[in-house]
User: What shape does this take?
Amino acid sequence: MRRHSRIAITIALLLSAGAGLSAQAPVGTTRVTPAAASAPGWTFTPAFGYGLTYDDNISMFGIRVVEEANDDVIAMYQPSIEVGYRGRHMRVEGDYSGSFLNYRTFSGLNRWDQRGKLELRREESARVKWFLRASAAAVPSTDLIELGGIPYRRTGATEAEGRAGVDIALGARDSIGSSFMDQVIDFERTADLRAVLRGGQVLESITVWRHKLGGRLAVGTDYSFRRATVTGDAEQFSIHAAEAAVDYELTRAWTFSGGAGVAYLEGTPVTPSRTGPSWRASLEWRRNSASFHAGYLRSFIPSFGFGGSIQNEEAGVGYRTALFHSRRWYTDQSAVFRNDTPLTSTFEQLPLRSLRTNSVLGFAPEPWVRLEAYYARTQQTSLRAGGQLYRNRIGFQIVTSKPVRVS
Assistant: This one.
C-alpha cells in the first residue's frame, strides 16, 4: 500500500462506526457518474431519475396490524447534481440528490427524501494531508438512516454532520492521523406520544497511529472519545475506546483491517459506569470495477431513540461486480445486521435486532443512462410480543446524466 493508505482506511472505518449514524442510501445505486470528477478541472453533472416502487408496509406497522390496507405503489422523481474539481494538490466534491415520493393511493404520505454533501481534500506536502466534509439529510422514515437503538417508524428525521481530519507521515514507517466530528440528529414531533423519538448531538475525536513492519503489514493503536447529549436526558454520556490495531495487505486485491481493545462508558446519575470489549474486523477485495466487503464491529453508542446508551454490534457484507463479462450489466448486493442492547435501565429502552438487505440488477446501455431493478427488505424486532416489523420494496428506476466540463 502507499504511505498513507492504511491510516486513511483506518480513519474511514472508525468514522463510519463513530456515532452509529450514516446516511442509508435509497434502494438502487445513487451516484450518477462514478468518474465525473476524474479529469483535471471542474466538472458539472446534472441528472434526473424516475422510478416505481411497490411497498408492502407503507405505515411501518408491526405484523398483523392493518395488513389488508398497508401497501401502495410509489412514483419517484429524482433530481440530482454533482460538482467536482480535481487539481494537482486539491480535490473538491459536492452533490445533492432529492427524491420526491408520490404515493398512488395514500397521497397524504407524499414526501421528499433529500441529501447533500460537500468535501474538500488537500495534500499540503508529501507528508501532510487534510480534509473537510459536511453532509446533511432529511428523510421521511427512520429506516432510511443508520442509527443505533432507533425503532423503525414513519417519523421524519433530519441529520447534519461535519468532519475534519489530518494525516501526517512522521517518517518512512510511522504515521499519525486525527479527526473530529460534530453530528446532530432531530426527529419530527407527532401527536402520537408513542412515536416520539429523542434525537441529540454527538462530538467525537479519533486518533490513530501506525507503524509499518515491511511492505504489507502495519500495526498501531486507535483511540476515540465520544461525548453525546440526548434530548431530554439530564446528563451527557462520555465514551472512551482504546484498541490495538493491525492492517495487512493479504494480496494486491485483498486487505484486512482489525482492532481489539477496551471501551469505557463513564457513569452518570442514571447509568453506572461500564467497561467492555471493543473490537472490529474488516476484509476487503477490489479488482477493477468489482469489490467485496465484510466487516464486524462492537462498541458503546448513545441511544437517540429512547435515551441513555446501548451496546451496539453490527455485521455487514457487500458485493458489486459486472455481469456476463460485460461492462453494461452489473449487480450490487448488500446486507447489514445490527444488535442493540440497552445499558440504561432507567428509561423504557428495548433491545432491537435489525436487518437490511438490498439487491440491485443494473444495465447501462449508454454511459449517460442507467436502468436498475431492485429489491430491498427491512426487518426489526424488539424481542417482545408484537414487536416484529417487516417491510419489502421492489421496483425499478431509470437515471440519465451528462457530465459537463466547465474548465
